[in-house]
Amino acid sequence: MKELSFRRHRRLRQSAGMRALVRETVLRKEDLIYPIFVVEGTDVKNEVPSMPGVYQVSLDHLTEEMTKLEERGILSVIVFGVPNEKDDQGSEAYNDEGIVQRAIRQIKKDHPSLTVIADTCLCQYTDHGHCGIIEDGEIVNDPSLTLLTKTAVSQAKAGADIIAPSNMMDGFTAAIRQGLDEAGFTNVPIMSYAVKYASAFYGPFRDAAHSAPSFGDRKTYQMDPANRLEALREANADVEEGADFLIVKPALSYLDIMREVKNETNLPVVAYNVSGEYSMIKAAVQNGWLDEKEVVMEKLLSMKRAGADLIITYFALDVAKWLDEEGKEMG
Ligand code: PBG
After folding, report:
1. ipTM for the complex?
2. Is 123 in the pocket of ligand 1 (CB under 6 A)?
3. Is the peptide bond prior to 189 cis by the omega test (within 30 degrees of 0)?
4. What is the annotated quaternary arrangement, including any partners (predicted)?
5. Which residues are identified as catalytic?
């Protein structure tokens, strides 16, 4: 028989120890950012029907939730407010006594070492559910920037460590950077939702945040899933405008984009593992069709492999627990 010539890849897979030696990507608790929905009222802890295991909580339950995070070693949280009152200007978004501002102050008081990220958008706060304001039936860009900047400054005043604008108006990073600087918040970074697609995977979030648009859709400001170069234009513009982190959202259907943003820019890249991506896995797990831990770890690892430095995920607490258990097994 003629001698075969081939490479023995299995040499490096033969034991857990050998596999650990050559592992290229790791998932760490420090990479995880946990989203939380805060609502008005007392003693509210509502499970979001389309997101089993995710709750809207009132402020009196917030501290216990944050304690859980800290005990598990999660370092950061992104806060979404669900206000009682909505109007056409989204004025609760920039009310210094609004639900998000109070939540931020409480977290920073009770858990000063947690890094608090404020999502900066108007859609939960406007009665029409759009991310900007409306004039003559149009979602107008520049007047929306004024209100978004007011919102960011109000969140920074409440103690937010990072501002994360998710509204997709043009120039939001430049406007918010200028507003923060003028208000004395030069050290507050912007984690920009630089690349945000008009995605059907946000459906469950809109249940959780009561933020579905009452008419039309978000396609005049969020991006077309068909486009790749446009993502690079968006990312580059946000770098120029002064972003400190770049979010790519959603994550799973856009891993190619994540890699390109990582290669093209030199800022930390954040994957947003969005609500629909969470719900899909939960539904399959509830049916007994998938192993939750295995699929979640594989998916989050794929985001890191695609270039994400950080991951916003509703699975953060579970992942931290699984990482603890693995650590115990190894030790
Ligand atoms: C607000 C916002 C949305 C999400 C984060 N910030 C919804 C949207 O744009 O409709 C989605 C997050 C998720 O689906 O988990 N603009």
Report:
1. 0.95
2. yes
3. no
4. Homooctamer.
5. 196, 249
Token pair recorded at residue 177? 């950077």
| In-domain check, residue 14 | no
Residue 105 confidence (pLDDT) above 60:
yes
pTM passes above 0.80: yes
What is the number of other CB atoms lying within 10 angstroms of the CB of residue 113? Answer: 7
List the CATH number of the domain containing 267: 3.20.20.70
Q: Is residue 192 part of a domain?
A: yes
Instruction: Tell me the C-alpha distance between 189 and 186, whole Å.
Output: 8
pLDDT for res 331: 46
Q: What residue spans of the chain are helical by DSSP H?
A: 16-21, 59-72, 99-110, 141-158, 172-182, 203-209, 229-241, 255-264, 275-286, 292-305, 316-330
Looking at the domain assignment, is residue 12 inside a domain?
no
State how many domains the chain has.
1
What does each C-alpha distance from 284 to 36, 237, 287, 311 come to in angstroms? 23, 39, 5, 22
Q: Kindly state whether residue 324 falls inside one of the protein's structural domains.
A: yes
pLDDT tens digits, 229-256 = 999 999 999 999 999 999 999 999 999 9
Ligand 1 pocket residue status of 247, Cβ below 6 Å: no
Q: Which amino acid is at 145?
A: L
pLDDT of residue 13: 98
* Residues 205, 224: Cα–Cα separation, whole Å: 19
Measured in angstroms, how far is the CA atom of residue 17 from the centroid of ligand 1?
40
d(CA 87, CA 191): 27
| SS3 (DSSP) at 190 | strand
Judge residue 14's burial from the number of C-beta atoms within 10 Å of its C-beta, 0-12 exposed, 13-18 middle, 19 or more buried.
Answer: exposed
Does 36 contact ligand 1 (Cβ within 6 A)?
no
Domain of 108, in residue numbers: 26-330
pLDDT in tens, 154-199: 999 999 999 999 999 999 999 999 999 999 999 999 999 999 999 9
SS3 letters for 257-287? Answer: HHHHHHHHCCCCEEEEECHHHHHHHHHHHHC
Q: Which residues of 133-159 are buried (b: 16+ CB within 10 A; e: fewer)?
A: bbeeeebebeebbebbbbbbbbbbebb
